[in-house]
User: Fold this.
Amino acid sequence: MNRLAQRGIAVVLAMSVMAVAAIAATAIMVTQNTWLREDALIAKHAQAYHLIPAGIDWARALLSDDRRSNNIDHLSEPWALKLPPVPVDNGELAGSIEDQQGLFNLNNLVLEGKVSHTQLARLQRLLSILGLPAGLADAVADWIDADSAPQSSAGAEDDYYLKLDSPYLAPNQPLINVAELALVRGFDSEILARLRPFVSALPRSTALNANTASPEVLAAVVDGLSIDDARALVARRERSYFRNFADFSSRLPEGATVPAADIAVSSNYFLVTVRVTIGEAEARGAALLARDKTAWPTIMWRNYL
Assistant:
Protein backbone atom coordinates (compact mmCIF):
# COMPACT_ATOMS: atom_id res chain seq x y z
CA MET A 1 0.00 0.00 0.00
CA ASN A 2 1.49 3.37 -1.02
CA ARG A 3 1.94 6.27 1.34
CA LEU A 4 -0.91 8.26 -0.21
CA ALA A 5 -3.35 5.45 0.50
CA GLN A 6 -2.06 5.09 4.05
CA ARG A 7 -2.51 8.81 4.66
CA GLY A 8 -6.05 8.56 3.31
CA ILE A 9 -6.88 5.72 5.65
CA ALA A 10 -5.35 7.66 8.56
CA VAL A 11 -7.47 10.71 7.75
CA VAL A 12 -10.63 8.60 7.57
CA LEU A 13 -9.79 6.91 10.88
CA ALA A 14 -9.10 10.28 12.49
CA MET A 15 -12.39 11.67 11.23
CA SER A 16 -14.21 8.56 12.50
CA VAL A 17 -12.61 8.94 15.92
CA MET A 18 -13.59 12.62 15.99
CA ALA A 19 -17.18 11.78 14.97
CA VAL A 20 -17.45 9.12 17.68
CA ALA A 21 -15.99 11.55 20.21
CA ALA A 22 -18.48 14.21 19.15
CA ILE A 23 -21.38 11.77 19.43
CA ALA A 24 -20.17 10.67 22.86
CA ALA A 25 -19.82 14.27 24.02
CA THR A 26 -23.31 15.06 22.77
CA ALA A 27 -24.71 11.98 24.51
CA ILE A 28 -22.99 12.99 27.73
CA MET A 29 -24.40 16.52 27.49
CA VAL A 30 -27.92 15.20 26.78
CA THR A 31 -27.66 12.76 29.67
CA GLN A 32 -26.45 15.50 32.01
CA ASN A 33 -29.26 17.80 30.91
CA THR A 34 -31.76 14.99 31.44
CA TRP A 35 -30.34 14.35 34.91
CA LEU A 36 -30.54 18.03 35.73
CA ARG A 37 -34.17 18.23 34.56
CA GLU A 38 -35.02 15.07 36.50
CA ASP A 39 -33.30 16.40 39.62
CA ALA A 40 -35.19 19.69 39.28
CA LEU A 41 -38.48 17.85 38.79
CA ILE A 42 -37.80 15.62 41.82
CA ALA A 43 -37.04 18.70 43.88
CA LYS A 44 -40.27 20.34 42.74
CA HIS A 45 -42.23 17.19 43.53
CA ALA A 46 -40.72 17.14 47.02
CA GLN A 47 -41.59 20.80 47.48
CA ALA A 48 -45.15 20.16 46.28
CA TYR A 49 -45.61 17.24 48.69
CA HIS A 50 -44.33 19.38 51.57
CA LEU A 51 -47.15 21.85 50.88
CA ILE A 52 -49.94 19.24 51.17
CA PRO A 53 -50.15 19.68 54.99
CA ALA A 54 -50.63 23.43 54.47
CA GLY A 55 -53.71 22.72 52.37
CA ILE A 56 -55.06 20.33 55.00
CA ASP A 57 -54.52 22.95 57.70
CA TRP A 58 -56.44 25.44 55.55
CA ALA A 59 -59.40 23.05 55.66
CA ARG A 60 -59.04 22.52 59.41
CA ALA A 61 -59.06 26.26 60.04
CA LEU A 62 -62.11 26.77 57.83
CA LEU A 63 -64.06 23.98 59.54
CA SER A 64 -63.07 25.20 62.99
CA ASP A 65 -64.27 28.72 62.22
CA ASP A 66 -67.49 27.32 60.77
CA ARG A 67 -68.27 25.32 63.93
CA ARG A 68 -67.71 28.38 66.12
CA SER A 69 -70.15 30.42 64.04
CA ASN A 70 -73.05 27.94 63.75
CA ASN A 71 -74.20 24.36 64.34
CA ILE A 72 -75.77 23.73 60.93
CA ASP A 73 -73.82 22.48 57.91
CA HIS A 74 -75.18 22.94 54.39
CA LEU A 75 -73.84 23.25 50.86
CA SER A 76 -73.99 27.05 50.71
CA GLU A 77 -71.37 27.49 53.43
CA PRO A 78 -67.76 28.54 52.64
CA TRP A 79 -66.32 25.09 53.47
CA ALA A 80 -68.45 23.54 50.69
CA LEU A 81 -66.93 25.80 48.01
CA LYS A 82 -63.81 24.62 46.22
CA LEU A 83 -60.68 26.58 47.06
CA PRO A 84 -59.62 28.33 43.84
CA PRO A 85 -55.92 28.00 42.97
CA VAL A 86 -53.86 30.35 45.14
CA PRO A 87 -50.15 31.17 44.71
CA VAL A 88 -47.81 29.39 47.15
CA ASP A 89 -44.00 29.08 46.99
CA ASN A 90 -43.49 29.25 43.23
CA GLY A 91 -46.66 27.29 42.50
CA GLU A 92 -50.33 27.07 43.33
CA LEU A 93 -52.53 25.21 45.78
CA ALA A 94 -56.17 24.19 45.32
CA GLY A 95 -58.47 22.08 47.42
CA SER A 96 -61.98 21.00 48.32
CA ILE A 97 -63.88 19.78 51.37
CA GLU A 98 -66.63 17.16 51.19
CA ASP A 99 -69.04 16.30 53.98
CA GLN A 100 -68.75 12.58 54.71
CA GLN A 101 -71.95 12.50 56.79
CA GLY A 102 -73.92 13.34 53.68
CA LEU A 103 -72.99 9.86 52.46
CA PHE A 104 -74.12 6.42 53.61
CA ASN A 105 -71.71 5.40 56.36
CA LEU A 106 -70.91 1.75 55.66
CA ASN A 107 -69.77 1.23 59.23
CA ASN A 108 -73.37 1.89 60.36
CA LEU A 109 -74.04 -1.65 59.15
CA VAL A 110 -72.58 -3.17 62.29
CA LEU A 111 -73.03 -2.12 65.91
CA GLU A 112 -70.97 -3.86 68.59
CA GLY A 113 -70.09 -6.62 66.14
CA LYS A 114 -73.68 -7.39 65.12
CA VAL A 115 -75.38 -6.49 61.84
CA SER A 116 -78.14 -3.87 61.94
CA HIS A 117 -80.89 -5.22 59.69
CA THR A 118 -82.32 -1.71 59.34
CA GLN A 119 -79.02 -0.37 58.01
CA LEU A 120 -78.53 -3.46 55.86
CA ALA A 121 -81.91 -2.88 54.21
CA ARG A 122 -80.95 0.75 53.59
CA LEU A 123 -77.72 -0.22 51.87
CA GLN A 124 -79.63 -2.74 49.77
CA ARG A 125 -82.01 0.05 48.70
CA LEU A 126 -79.10 2.31 47.81
CA LEU A 127 -77.50 -0.40 45.71
CA SER A 128 -80.78 -1.04 43.90
CA ILE A 129 -81.24 2.68 43.23
CA LEU A 130 -77.76 2.76 41.70
CA GLY A 131 -78.47 -0.30 39.56
CA LEU A 132 -76.07 -2.52 41.51
CA PRO A 133 -76.70 -6.01 42.96
CA ALA A 134 -78.38 -5.71 46.36
CA GLY A 135 -76.47 -8.81 47.52
CA LEU A 136 -73.29 -6.72 47.75
CA ALA A 137 -74.67 -5.37 51.03
CA ASP A 138 -74.42 -8.83 52.60
CA ALA A 139 -70.78 -9.15 51.53
CA VAL A 140 -69.95 -5.77 53.10
CA ALA A 141 -71.77 -6.68 56.33
CA ASP A 142 -69.85 -9.98 56.54
CA TRP A 143 -66.58 -8.13 55.99
CA ILE A 144 -67.29 -5.93 59.05
CA ASP A 145 -69.29 -8.07 61.50
CA ALA A 146 -67.67 -10.14 64.24
CA ASP A 147 -69.07 -13.57 63.36
CA SER A 148 -68.01 -16.11 60.73
CA ALA A 149 -71.46 -16.93 59.35
CA PRO A 150 -72.33 -15.45 55.90
CA GLN A 151 -75.43 -13.27 55.77
CA SER A 152 -76.65 -15.07 52.66
CA SER A 153 -75.38 -16.89 49.60
CA ALA A 154 -74.13 -13.49 48.38
CA GLY A 155 -72.16 -12.91 51.58
CA ALA A 156 -68.60 -14.01 52.30
CA GLU A 157 -66.54 -14.91 55.32
CA ASP A 158 -63.10 -16.49 55.76
CA ASP A 159 -64.07 -19.71 53.97
CA TYR A 160 -64.62 -17.74 50.75
CA TYR A 161 -61.53 -15.51 50.94
CA LEU A 162 -59.16 -18.34 51.89
CA LYS A 163 -60.01 -20.15 48.63
CA LEU A 164 -58.86 -17.24 46.44
CA ASP A 165 -55.63 -17.47 44.47
CA SER A 166 -54.15 -14.94 46.88
CA PRO A 167 -55.96 -15.86 50.11
CA TYR A 168 -56.65 -13.53 53.02
CA LEU A 169 -59.05 -13.22 55.96
CA ALA A 170 -62.06 -10.99 56.47
CA PRO A 171 -60.99 -8.37 59.05
CA ASN A 172 -64.28 -8.51 61.01
CA GLN A 173 -63.91 -4.88 62.00
CA PRO A 174 -65.03 -1.48 60.68
CA LEU A 175 -63.76 -0.26 57.34
CA ILE A 176 -60.93 2.26 57.51
CA ASN A 177 -61.39 3.57 53.99
CA VAL A 178 -63.93 3.00 51.21
CA ALA A 179 -61.07 1.78 49.01
CA GLU A 180 -61.00 -1.35 51.19
CA LEU A 181 -64.15 -2.51 49.36
CA ALA A 182 -61.86 -3.62 46.52
CA LEU A 183 -61.10 -6.66 48.71
CA VAL A 184 -64.75 -7.52 49.36
CA ARG A 185 -66.52 -10.23 47.38
CA GLY A 186 -68.35 -8.94 44.31
CA PHE A 187 -66.65 -5.55 44.10
CA ASP A 188 -64.75 -4.77 40.92
CA SER A 189 -63.43 -1.41 39.71
CA GLU A 190 -66.66 -0.49 37.88
CA ILE A 191 -68.92 -1.28 40.84
CA LEU A 192 -66.62 0.55 43.24
CA ALA A 193 -66.53 3.61 40.97
CA ARG A 194 -70.34 3.63 40.77
CA LEU A 195 -70.86 3.30 44.53
CA ARG A 196 -68.02 5.41 45.86
CA PRO A 197 -69.65 8.88 45.47
CA PHE A 198 -72.50 7.77 47.76
CA VAL A 199 -70.74 6.01 50.65
CA SER A 200 -68.21 6.74 53.38
CA ALA A 201 -66.37 4.74 56.03
CA LEU A 202 -66.35 6.69 59.30
CA PRO A 203 -64.81 5.68 62.64
CA ARG A 204 -68.16 5.44 64.40
CA SER A 205 -71.88 5.21 63.72
CA THR A 206 -73.22 8.52 62.41
CA ALA A 207 -76.50 10.18 61.50
CA LEU A 208 -77.07 11.30 57.90
CA ASN A 209 -76.78 15.05 57.29
CA ALA A 210 -79.99 15.81 55.40
CA ASN A 211 -78.54 19.14 54.23
CA THR A 212 -75.75 17.54 52.21
CA ALA A 213 -77.08 14.09 51.29
CA SER A 214 -77.80 13.25 47.66
CA PRO A 215 -81.29 12.19 46.52
CA GLU A 216 -80.04 8.60 46.17
CA VAL A 217 -78.85 8.40 49.79
CA LEU A 218 -81.95 10.14 51.15
CA ALA A 219 -84.19 7.71 49.30
CA ALA A 220 -82.19 4.80 50.74
CA VAL A 221 -82.31 6.01 54.35
CA VAL A 222 -85.85 7.42 54.57
CA ASP A 223 -88.51 4.72 54.49
CA GLY A 224 -91.18 5.33 51.85
CA LEU A 225 -89.25 8.10 50.06
CA SER A 226 -89.04 7.50 46.31
CA ILE A 227 -86.09 8.71 44.29
CA ASP A 228 -88.32 11.23 42.49
CA ASP A 229 -89.58 12.63 45.80
CA ALA A 230 -86.01 12.73 47.09
CA ARG A 231 -84.92 14.77 44.07
CA ALA A 232 -87.78 17.21 44.67
CA LEU A 233 -86.81 17.44 48.34
CA VAL A 234 -83.21 18.29 47.43
CA ALA A 235 -84.37 20.91 44.91
CA ARG A 236 -86.39 22.63 47.66
CA ARG A 237 -83.44 22.30 50.04
CA GLU A 238 -81.32 24.40 47.70
CA ARG A 239 -83.66 27.32 48.34
CA SER A 240 -83.91 26.74 52.08
CA TYR A 241 -81.73 24.31 54.01
CA PHE A 242 -83.10 22.23 56.89
CA ARG A 243 -82.86 23.90 60.30
CA ASN A 244 -83.53 20.82 62.42
CA PHE A 245 -85.12 17.39 62.28
CA ALA A 246 -88.63 18.79 62.69
CA ASP A 247 -88.08 21.04 59.67
CA PHE A 248 -86.82 18.09 57.63
CA SER A 249 -89.65 15.80 58.73
CA SER A 250 -92.29 18.42 57.89
CA ARG A 251 -91.11 18.55 54.28
CA LEU A 252 -91.27 14.80 53.70
CA PRO A 253 -94.11 13.50 51.53
CA GLU A 254 -96.93 11.59 53.19
CA GLY A 255 -95.91 8.09 54.19
CA ALA A 256 -92.17 8.82 54.32
CA THR A 257 -90.63 8.31 57.77
CA VAL A 258 -87.25 8.06 59.46
CA PRO A 259 -86.21 8.01 63.15
CA ALA A 260 -84.93 11.35 64.45
CA ALA A 261 -81.71 9.68 65.64
CA ASP A 262 -80.81 8.80 62.05
CA ILE A 263 -81.01 12.33 60.65
CA ALA A 264 -78.86 15.37 61.43
CA VAL A 265 -78.40 18.87 60.04
CA SER A 266 -74.72 19.15 60.97
CA SER A 267 -71.60 17.05 60.46
CA ASN A 268 -68.41 16.08 62.24
CA TYR A 269 -66.52 14.23 59.49
CA PHE A 270 -65.11 15.79 56.33
CA LEU A 271 -62.82 14.68 53.52
CA VAL A 272 -60.33 17.29 52.34
CA THR A 273 -58.56 16.87 49.00
CA VAL A 274 -55.53 19.04 48.15
CA ARG A 275 -53.64 19.57 44.89
CA VAL A 276 -50.30 21.42 44.71
CA THR A 277 -48.67 22.30 41.37
CA ILE A 278 -45.12 23.65 41.02
CA GLY A 279 -44.03 23.92 37.41
CA GLU A 280 -44.48 20.47 35.84
CA ALA A 281 -44.60 18.79 39.24
CA GLU A 282 -47.93 17.97 40.88
CA ALA A 283 -48.77 16.45 44.26
CA ARG A 284 -52.16 15.38 45.61
CA GLY A 285 -53.25 14.45 49.09
CA ALA A 286 -56.41 13.63 51.01
CA ALA A 287 -57.30 13.50 54.68
CA LEU A 288 -60.31 12.57 56.77
CA LEU A 289 -60.99 15.23 59.40
CA ALA A 290 -63.02 14.77 62.58
CA ARG A 291 -64.50 17.91 64.12
CA ASP A 292 -66.19 18.31 67.49
CA LYS A 293 -67.75 21.29 69.23
CA THR A 294 -64.58 22.89 70.53
CA ALA A 295 -61.36 21.29 69.28
CA TRP A 296 -59.27 21.92 66.20
CA PRO A 297 -60.27 19.19 63.69
CA THR A 298 -58.33 15.96 64.11
CA ILE A 299 -56.70 14.17 61.17
CA MET A 300 -58.06 10.60 61.28
CA TRP A 301 -55.95 9.50 58.32
CA ARG A 302 -53.98 11.12 55.52
CA ASN A 303 -52.99 9.74 52.10
CA TYR A 304 -50.73 11.05 49.37
CA LEU A 305 -52.31 10.30 46.02
Summary: Residues 108-197+219-262 form a domain with the Ribonucleotide Reductase Protein R1; domain 1 fold (CATH 1.10.40.60). Residues 24-41 have pLDDT under 50 and may be disordered. The chain has nine helices and eleven strands.
